[in-house]
Amino acid sequence: IMVFGTPVLMMCLARPFPQEVLAALTLLTSAFVYSNTLYMFIFAGLGLKRMLAQAKLDPASICEANALDLPVTPSSKYLQQRQTMDPKAVKHWVILPQYKEDIETVAMAMRSAAGSSMAKSNISILLAMEEREIGAEDKVKQLTELFKDQFEDIQANYHPKDLPNDPPGKASNVSHAFRYLISKVDSYENTILTVADADSEFGQGYFETLSWNFAECDPTERYTKIWQSPVFH
After folding, report:
1. Which residues cross the membrane (predicted)?
2. All domains of the chain, ordered by start, with CATH?
C-alpha cells in the first residue's frame, strides 16, 4: 500500500491541491535525503574507525595470539570477543576467474595472497580458466611454477565452451569452477571460499582477519554468513 498507494494518492491530489502536493513531496524528499546522509555519516565513521584499528594490528598476531589474552588497546579492543575455535584451523580457497588476462596481472593477485602469514598452510588457489582461451594451459603451468610451494595447493579448472544454457562470462566460469571444487575438496568443514577478480589485490591481514571472524562466529551461523571487505580502487 505504501509503495503504490502514496504515488497514486499524490497524483489524485495534484490537480486540486498542487501547492500542497509540491510541499509534501519536498518535505518527504528532504527527510529521505537527510536520514540517508545521517545514516551514512554515522556508520561510515564507525566503519572507518574499525578499519584504522585493524590496520594497526600485526596480521600474524590475529591468529597466533589468543584474542582473549591480547592487551586491551585501541588497536585490539574489538578483538575482545568469544572465540569458539582456533583461527589457524580455518582453510581458504580462492577462485580467480580469468579470460585473456596477462600473466603478470594474475600473478599480482596471487602475490598479494601469498603475502599472507598463512598462505603455505591454509590458502589454496583455484585458477578458473576459459577453455576457449588460447594458451590457457600454458598460463596455468607458468603460474603454478611461479608460485610453487607458496600455497597449500594450486588447482585449475577449464570452463568448457558451447555448453547448453551456459553463456560465456564470469558468472558461468565461477559456477563451473565451484562445481569442480566441490568434487575435489574432501571436507568443507572450516573452509572459506573467496571469489575475486584476476586483478584483485588482497589487503594486509585479509585472510587472517577473515579466519578470526569465522572462528569467533556462532557455529550455527558460520556457513550461512558472507563477509565483504572494503574495496579500494
Report:
1. 24-48
2. 2-55 (no CATH), 87-224 (3.90.550.10)
Q: Is 214 left (phi over 0), alpha (psi -120 to 50) or beta?
A: alpha
3-state SS of the chain is CHHHHHHHHHHHHHCCCHHHHHHHHHHHHHHHHHHHHHHHHHHHHHHHHHHHHHHCCCHHHHHHCCHHHCCCCCCCHHHCCCCCCCHHHCEEEEEEECCCCCHHHHHHHHHHHHCCCCHHHHEEEEEEEECCCCCHHHHHHHHHHHCCCCCCEEEEEEECCCCCCCCCCHHHHHHHHHHHHHHHCCCCCCEEEEECCCCCCCCCCHHHHHHHHHHHCCCCCHHHCCCCCCCCC
Distance (Å, whole) CA 187 – CA 21 = 61
Nearest to 214 by CA among 181, 191, 188: 191
pLDDT tens profile 14-51: 888 888 888 988 988 888 888 888 888 888 888 888 87
pLDDT (tens digit, 9 = 90+) per residue, 161-190?
888 888 888 999 999 999 999 998 888 889
